[in-house]
Amino acid sequence: MLEIAYVSAAQSILRDRVSAVFSKTGVVKNGDRVQILERERRFVRVRTASGAEGWIEQRSLVPQSVYDGFQKLAQQEQHAPVQATGATRNDTNIHLDPGRETQHLYQLNQGSKVSILKRDTAEKTVPGAMAKPASTNKNEPSKPAMPLEDWWLIRDPDGHVGWVLSRMVDLDVPLEIAQYAEGQRTVAFFVLNQVADGDKKVSQYLVVLTEPKDGLPFDYNQIRVFTWNVKRHRYETAYRERNLNGIFPVTVSQEDFGKEGTLPVFVLQVKDDNGNLSQRKYKMNTPIVRRVLAPGEVKETSAPRKRARHQ
Predict the structure, then answer these.
(1) Largest alpha-carbon pair distance within the chain?
(2) Which of 54, 7, 57 is nearest to 33 (CA)?
(3) What pTM, to 2 d.p., does this model score?
(4) For residue 280, what are the contacts with CB-CB under 8 A and spacing of at least 6?
(5) Which runs of consecutive H residues, i.e. helices, occur in the chain?
(6) To the nearest 5 percent, what fractions of the chain are helix, strand and coil?
(7) Are strands 246-256 and 234-241 parallel, antiparallel or unpaired?
(8) 66-103: per-residue pLDDT in tens?
(9) Could you tell me if 209 and 216 are in contact, meaning their C-beta atoms sit under 8 angstroms apart?
(10) Are 163 and 151 in contact (CB under 8 A)?
(11) What distance in Å separates the CA atoms of residue 147 and residue 137, rounded to the nearest whole number?
């Protein structure tokens, strides 16, 4: 049985011979499936699904195992809730795992729309850079050889799922709330519901934020709920919570609370100091946001919060 490979380059030409002078026998594009007929140093001769044959550089192909890895990842994450949407800043590779040196197959063009599913970190590797040696001073804490950078697990419009460098994606944070980030990085946002203001509908938001740097041990550490004041026609911060050790996903839904009616609900996943994961549920009865305690759960005491108004 012939070996199968997939084209990882944006586009490559097929040539009739491996030499400086050659004739073009066909063109393959990103994601195309090809059969490998012959190998010669850094080139391989392939046959496409349409029957075209020719030589292509080995570096433009990935093996069947990489393709299968992407298929498995897409299957695993098919029900993962979307945390945010965004667009790519530049042409970007989709990797099978977080990290610049990991296998990649699919490519996104600049401006491609993506859905954010999860976050992870990987060491920042720079070609030709030497790793810093670990400290020999026992009194100094051990430092990582390389700084960490954030990666997003994304789903593209074609249904491909994989990892992209987070700085290559600009999140589509609504402009009306983006201005209130106060120097923090927005990493997720959700429409909780809409309210009527005259003849228009205005969205009310849950916004998830973190410190503006990569490599943090949590996905987020702050949340804010923005509600719309229909009398003053402006957004106000109805709820704010800091110092969270939050882990994706955040989920948003609706729930029936009897006399209060059906209200927006959101659930956070938070780690404690021992690394144990627990869930916190909240409900919003505009403009009031309150914790919904599970049976036996005791509410933590905290100072009362004042609602902030935004001009």
Answers:
(1) 80
(2) 7
(3) 0.87
(4) 267, 268, 270, 291
(5) 64-76, 175-178
(6) 10, 50, 40
(7) unpaired
(8) 999 999 999 999 999 999 999 999 999 999 999 999 99
(9) no
(10) yes
(11) 20
